[in-house]
Amino acid sequence: MGLTMGLNMLLLMAMVATNILSLYYLSSSSTFLQSRPSTPSPPVPDHLLQQLHTIRATINHLTRLQPTTTTTTTTTKPTKPTIIPSDLLIYTHISPIASACRDHPELLHRYMNYSPFSLCPSDPTNILAETLILNGCHPLPRRRCFSHSPTPSPSLSSSHPFSPLPSIWSSKYSNLGFDMKSERDRFLVYKTDLDLPISQLVQLSKSSKSPIRLGLDIGGGTGTFAAQMKLLLNATVITTTMNLGAPYNEAAAVRGLVPLHVPLQQRLPVFDGVLDLVRCGRAMNRWIPTAAMEFLLYDVDRVLRGGGYLWLDRFFSKGVDLDKVYGPLIGKLGSLCQNEASQSDLGGCVESSLPR
């Protein structure tokens, strides 16, 4: 009996001693590991982060549209699973969609939910497409459906760019650049201190020996500036415009001009250093976030050739913002040419591109 109790006590003491030694070893090992200097991990390149962000955004978008299984009870109704449009899945394999599309999965689902090889879903004024575009979901995914023909199709009475537009447009949108009688004199006469007639622009180009042959009109509405440059100088000017409730793109096309259906936040679809002139009209104003405007101005500088012109036409802002925010922002592109009629307007300002 005494021998058995002695053996048990010996085994118990051995087990306790073993545990104490194990704890001591583990604590000393962890202290040693913590004292070793950690090797810093190399930084991830920015372009790789952007690619990962785009891929993650696409995956997040498709995940949000995946069919979800929900447990039904007596108090809740089962939710109908959302099926991802097949052509959206095909397109994501061909080309990644814009990362901002993930913020509007319902709109994107409506845009891509159609029957392939048939008529596209009806969107007469492009409200759905332009809503996606203006929210950063651009370029839009391509679709395999046929567009609807305009009804009624606008009739062409003349090839002259100032011929009357269809009456259904000119009567409804007369004060939005669709009345050709009032558009004929635009950019031709000097009425206020904010006006820069095309004749004066031509004199500037001749004096600097920098001809204007190819230009871009940002936010040019129905394309009147492009029409005047075509008639007076035989210059080619492309107009970027959004419809926003009025058929600006259709009107520019009827006049024989080239409209580009792109938002202001998109990179200009022009190669580097090929334009003689970029005009920014009323669409570019203080309502644009400062960061977005800065990217736009630097992109304008990218597409202008050496000696090209940046024309800020009737830039509107508060006087204090013009001095503290927009003046320095625009002045980064070079010596700022200001033709100010008041503290709140920057009218008829022609800014030569930075020399390259």
What layout of secondary structure does this protein have?
Blueprint: H1 2-35, H2 46-64, H3 86-94, H4 105-112, H5 127-134, H6 167-170, H7 180-183, H8 198-207, E1 214-218, H9 224-233, E2 236-240, H10 248-254, E3 258-260, E4 275-280, H11 290-303, E5 304-312, E6 315-316, H12 319-331, E7 345-346, E8 349-352
Parallel strand pairs: 1-2, 1-4, 2-3, 4-5
Antiparallel strand pairs: 5-8, 6-7
Give a short synopsis of this structure.
The chain has helices at 2-35, 46-64, 86-94, 105-112, 127-134, 167-170, 180-183, 198-207, 224-233, 248-254, 290-303, 319-331, and strands at 214-218, 236-240, 258-260, 275-280, 304-312, 315-316, 345-346, 349-352.
Key terms:
alpha/beta, 2 domains, two-stranded antiparallel ribbon, disordered C terminus
Could you walk me through the main structural features you see in this protein, from its secondary elements to its overall organization?
With 356 residues, this protein is α/β, with parallel strands linked by helices. It folds into 2 domains: 82-150, no CATH class; 167-352, Vaccinia Virus protein VP39 (Rossmann fold, 3-Layer(aba) Sandwich). 39% of the residues lie in helices and 10% in strands. The chain is built from 12 helices and 8 strands. It has helices at residues 2-35, 46-64, 86-94, 105-112, 127-134, 167-170, 180-183, 198-207, 224-233, 248-254, 290-303, 319-331, and strands spanning 214-218, 236-240, 258-260, 275-280, 304-312, 315-316, 345-346, 349-352. Strands 3-2-1-4-5-8 form a 6-stranded mixed β-sheet. It has a two-stranded antiparallel ribbon with strand order 6-7. Helix 4 (105-112) crosses helix 5. The longest helix has 34 residues, at 2-35. It is elongated, with a radius of gyration of 32 Å. The chain starts with a helix and ends with a strand.
